[in-house]
Structure prediction request, 666 residues.
Amino acid sequence: MLDAQILAIASIFLSSSGVVKEAIEDISEKKITANLLMLIAGVASFFILHGQEGATALLLYAIAERLEEITTDKSRNAIKELLELAPDDALLKTENGYKNIPSREVKIGDTVGIKPGMKVPLDGLIIKGNSYLDESAITGESVPVLKNEGDEVFAASLNSDSFIDIEVTRESTNTIVAQIAESVKIAQQNKSKHEKFIEKFAKYYTPIILLSSILVMTIPPLFGLKFVDWFYRGLILLVVSCPCALTLSTPLANIASLTKLAREGILVKGNIFIEKLQDIEAFAFDKTGTLTEGRLKIFDILSYNGANKQDIINIAASLESLSEHPIGKAIVNQAKEMKLTFHPVDDFEIIKGKGIKGNINGEVFYVGSHKFMEEMNYKLPFDDIKNIETSGTIPILLGNQQHLLGIISIRDVLRVTAPILINGLKKRGYETILISGDNQKVCNSIGACLDIDKTYGEHLPDQKLQEIQNLQLQYKGVAMVGDGINDAPALALADLGIAIGASATDITLETADVIVIGDDLKKILTFVDIAKKTNKKIKQNIWTSIFVKVSFAILTVIGFMTLWLAVGLGDMGVSLAIMINSLTIFRYKFLYKEISTDELESEAKLIICDNCQTKDIIPQHHGRDMVKKGDKLICWKNILSSEELETCDEELPLHCPYCQNELELK
Prediction:
């Protein structure tokens, strides 16, 4: 027996030095912790000749502590890995060529060269060349993205194609990847209600357990019961009631969640915002730059009085090329894509608030709204104009001094991932609301296209704010998704503010609680799924810990528990189960079909008949260009169609309306 006790003591010194050291530190700081409870139980077990069990208990506890450190370090190291994604060196462009210098020495405005196969060292704009870049480290998007001059590139992106020059827009300490890592660190300090409660609970719980164990050791012997038995049960109660598993239940799941979200290109500014998702019942959206790309495009062309579509675009673009209006730029861009030659314009004039006019080859033309054309006493096709406005597009009219020649309808381009997002939210039980400053008819069109539950148009920033307040009276919690400065107040007021980072302004990013890096709206569903999974894991962890602790405490008092079993199952076992359960968050995979934009965005800009040389725009359906499939055009949503999305069967034959020749996309 003495030999066994000596071996047990040796075992404690060899295996549990870390526990002993931490317990001594806790005592010096006047704290009662699990380390102290385990040390008391382990040492006291020798006085009742249960040293072997005490040594086994401490050994198991030391193993559990080490596994906990490894697991926690694995989660925390992901932050360090994020910071190390961007290279330490950069190719700075100088008068004498390129010079390799540390990235931290590069300033905003400097030009940096990126070779094929190199990682981008700093955020910037491409000023020379184009290339495919793998942005998976930042946005979570696995498909390389083609970047042209003027496009933004992020540090840690991998250049996989051609040499490019970028103008640096953020220094090394302020790149998106640095912000991601910093946000994750800050987020861990922004604790959820669960974490705050458990920390407060553990503060009082541990001393109460110590007192309860002393009472179990001392009170029964006062009534003649065997001291050794009840002293032993008191030691087991000390061990089995250690709050390790309970204190691990929330932070480990949150660390895993924040890190997983960061890897997916989603920044969350605190654990509290993961927890807040539990209360969200409705998602409100801005339109321009959020559900749409904020990029105006010609939707359709109607011709009148003998004019043809090509001439309508050509004349309108020639006039608009002298204007700076965004709608005019959309017409000019379309004409450039059709490779049309602009006419010289004389006597150009901007008629403020109405339109423009100019002289082309001795004939005066006008471009503007239908109200402007009414003043010209044209006979207008009001039914066509009404249909255009009802469809959510903007009618731009072209006429000469005698009559109307054509109507060009303009609309914003819907994001590819918008229908997946809205449909996914509805399937998850959320209400969807569109709140926009745009025309109500335009909003109604987008709302109908995406099957959004409610649409509110023509809202100024203060009216958006009021609408969020109204929604908060109807729903338990409201999330707002936006990107512009005018969305910042609504993002701040909403219970959960989500910014789309590709187009978001600095003030919007500062205000938002969650930031999606890039423009993939599916990431919002990823955030919802991971946040829900995290909250579910936390609840599982808390209740499992409480159930096991209470059950083992009862078994201890009635004498059906041993010291090593209390540690092996009641403490180490449940702690390991909670750690494993929390780490399953890393296994999350997005269930929707991944669609490459290459499938939806061909390089073709127009339709041409090789026989009669007729040129026309590619028609749209559901807010984007239709896609060629065989000898016809189909709605782009048909490619997205799966079990998760409704099918759109719209299709058009590719035949010239004039000569019936087969049309080509070029």
Observations:
- Residues 1-5 have pLDDT under 50 and may be disordered.
- Residues 2-79+187-254+534-587 form one domain.
- The longest strand covers residues 292-303.
- Residues 32 and 207 are 6 Å apart (CA to CA).
